[in-house]
Sequence to fold (1148 residues):
Amino acid sequence: MRTSQFPIQTLKEVPADAEIVSHRLMLRAGMIRKLAAGLYTWLPMGLRTLRKVEAIVREEMDRAGALEVLMPAVQPAELWQESGRWEHYGPELLRLRDRHQRDFCFGPTHEEIITDLARAELKSYKQLPVIFYQIQTKFRDEIRPRFGVMRAREFLMKDAYSFHLDSASLTATYQRMHEAYSHIFTRCGLAFRPVRADTGSIGGNTSHEFHVLADSGEDAIAFCDASDYAANVELAEAIPATAQAPSPTESARLLDTPGVRTIDDLVHGFAQPIERTVKTLVVAAAPESGSALVALLVRGDHELNLTKAEKLPEVAAPLRMATEEEIRAAIGAGPGSLGPKDLPIPCIADASVAVTSDFSAGANQDGKHWFGLNWERDLPRPRVADLRTVRDGDPSPDGAGRLRIARGIEVGHIFQLGCKYSEALKATVLGEDGRATTLTMGCYGIGVSRVVAAAIEQHHDEQGIRWPTAIAPFEVALLPMKLGKSFRVREATEQLYDDLSAAGIEVLLDDRDARAGVMFADMELIGIPHRIVVGDRALDAGHVEYKGRGDNETQLIPIEEVVGWLVARLRAVP
Amino acid sequence: MRTSQFPIQTLKEVPADAEIVSHRLMLRAGMIRKLAAGLYTWLPMGLRTLRKVEAIVREEMDRAGALEVLMPAVQPAELWQESGRWEHYGPELLRLRDRHQRDFCFGPTHEEIITDLARAELKSYKQLPVIFYQIQTKFRDEIRPRFGVMRAREFLMKDAYSFHLDSASLTATYQRMHEAYSHIFTRCGLAFRPVRADTGSIGGNTSHEFHVLADSGEDAIAFCDASDYAANVELAEAIPATAQAPSPTESARLLDTPGVRTIDDLVHGFAQPIERTVKTLVVAAAPESGSALVALLVRGDHELNLTKAEKLPEVAAPLRMATEEEIRAAIGAGPGSLGPKDLPIPCIADASVAVTSDFSAGANQDGKHWFGLNWERDLPRPRVADLRTVRDGDPSPDGAGRLRIARGIEVGHIFQLGCKYSEALKATVLGEDGRATTLTMGCYGIGVSRVVAAAIEQHHDEQGIRWPTAIAPFEVALLPMKLGKSFRVREATEQLYDDLSAAGIEVLLDDRDARAGVMFADMELIGIPHRIVVGDRALDAGHVEYKGRGDNETQLIPIEEVVGWLVARLRAVP
Fold:
């Protein structure tokens, strides 16, 4: 392609409402333009990258044996009513009425539609397992669309759905999809982590999110520095640093602590190491627990994890913190003076609290704290659970190393759905025993357009985008100097353009006859991974100038070798 | 592909609500399934063909220099209000509201969106001409969706839009698109005609429809048997068979014609040749004509063309036939007794009427007709216009031969829009003279999903679909006989499958081990153009059995030659 036929639409100014770097760079590089809030037009340059990601996704899904279909974007309400989601989905579901006043929605996902198809098309266990997928436009009416295509309302998604006779078959396919996703993001040239998204209660559903690592990511993920373990930071299991509490060295003392209401007061006012302070947080108890309130203990330097707390059988869901009034009525002291010793309500300790010795905590009397407390000696050992959010440096739950915290952008999500939709829609097949068996399902999504933005968040610098070659809009920028003045430059450039194209390399020839600085800046902004400059001076010695997008220096390559040299370089890039 | 991995989803029964053959065959061959009225899911088999059509369209658009973009399906009402279409589009426009109660629509077309993009991105004449296109899902809320994907509500469309400094540039691009469309439909293996869709008033817009010829087509088109001339039958110019009226041979006679109210009565009751009868039809006149009514004359065997009549300056638009009451009040006779002689209202004659001699017509008195009338001799020569619809056998307007009438399915439409949208949206560029110049536009659509249905309407037989090879879901069906019993058949089939695949041929290997009749019927229904049968008997002589989808007989091909033989055959097919 030549810029005369494939115009560059770069912008010099940084658009005011673009908050994150990928949004800014996609606008500046002429990849997208905003139509309305959360609605973007893909310009030719951006669409080339989008189509490359799409092609990689399609190839790997096909390779994994998935069958491509194309379902309508507009979906009848009846199926959503059957699944119960018409009522429960909320305002992200764009509901609409046709001319006959029948209810439809613009599909944000297709579980209902594919399950309806499956119940009609799948009759026998012999047709299982089967995976259907599509690459299609979705709509989610985000309350605050932002970050360009990262959190757009209309977006391109690959959604896949698998059907099985039993959960063993689902598990096998789930694993296959997990591998396909790893291939996809690897081929896109992205650093990513599959992250356990829900450790779940026993027998619950398994789910993994695929995160592209980037400092700007909205999600914090915890991953092991010595193994494959990775989980959403909210869900990662917190392991105490020691297995057992050290032996007591202090005696228990009840002291007056006027004005001490926080851990900070205790640490600074009484020189307590924060690791040996205990916070007591009171929440509403589950009705069946026999108590109105329950206390949760975490170390002073740890954070209560609300997601984990809410899953405890003793705790009411949704989780609700007790009011000061409720606390005073039940315990006789305010929230700043609570502690596990002589506590008149049930109490659950985080695993790290259970291995803490010589600790300080409130005495359940206003203005008094206990110091030098030790389990068993001074108060009974409490029920123990995982109540806190992991921190950088914590032991990895798989015992392999330490947890590190990184930020990630969710670009994929795989999920063992089980029978949720097949039960609701009565999707069954005849099993081997001839009896109707409810289908078991998995679903597997990739935000295709989001992958493009995530790739930029991970790969950019001050000058612009630094595309991984596999998803770059072009592989090579060919920049002739003084095209209008030098016949020799023109001739060499045209020859090189033909030779590179014939070698199957995607070249963008900048034939604008612009100043070198303008061309360099545009090609760096757009992020083309390889740059060849053709100029009279280098041609004198039979050379052209090469610079990789991430290189600091240019290098001279003999013109007759450059095509072979680039082919080798390009095809070697992962 | 193997049927074990790419399951066949054929149906034996003909679905009850499928009215046309392509709809029936697409359902039976397992290409599509209905989700709701006018909404279809493309199954894997159907999607393969859809994607092939899409790929051909994309290649030819790219080759013509068009730039691919992707605009949102959901469009803000504001732009449609700017163009005026928010009010005028009618209920086919699917209007919707987002969670903030802002108005949007699901785009049935994208003139407003692309013009909005153009006014932002195009600044100078140097950027012109430029063509943008997209291949995207559209929605038109048809009042009565039917015929499967032929007239669906949600469908896949290629829409392109070109921008120009002047109409000369538009005309050149229009011609280029005309050629690209011809390449596309030729490559799809379809018999088609580009048809002039609007002969238009002078200075008006030029437009061509591309029709796939098929007896089931909804549109009648008139085309010349000796030239490229083709037009929608409603718009084709009607030329009289003779240039001048023959000399009179009869005298004018006023006769009592009790009970004669129709041309049929006149022909049968008074032995008049129908070609020498004249119908007088009275319509409301244009207000500025000075008369309330105007009479239109066509020969008894011709049909008044309402589209042509409405365009006459004397006729009120929209066209309205006069009531009997109005006619009696103005003329003093009923509609069955009208004629041009002594008619008290203005009168316009079709060109064929103007060259008719010795004709009969009503006498503007109930129960009386004139016979043997001749222009000039018996009544003044009237104003003449083209008022009738052409018939098979009429002279071609270009003077080259005779018109034939065929039925067609509209699959493409190209249109010289001019400044309609660019004026409304104030889309200008700086011209060479430095002054703001309103953009001139063209638009160019192809119903990609409709092409699939139209191809079937044109290519099918009793057994099923007969795909043109270029858009067949697979090129070759490989059918082993008694796969489960014959090791030799299995071995030969697997070898052939590998060799055909390696040669770049798309093979569907039916490894169901079904009966021959079942496999033959399925592959004929699906319409795979070439069939290879591997069986023990033929293998004895080193042969496999070949049959083209349209062949009556099978032929034996030496197994070691069959790959090369097929490659030659497949690549020779246009």
Remarks:
- DSSP finds 16 helices and 30 strands in chain A.
- The longest strand of chain A covers residues 403-418.
- Residues 7 and 44 of chain A are 9 Å apart (CA to CA).
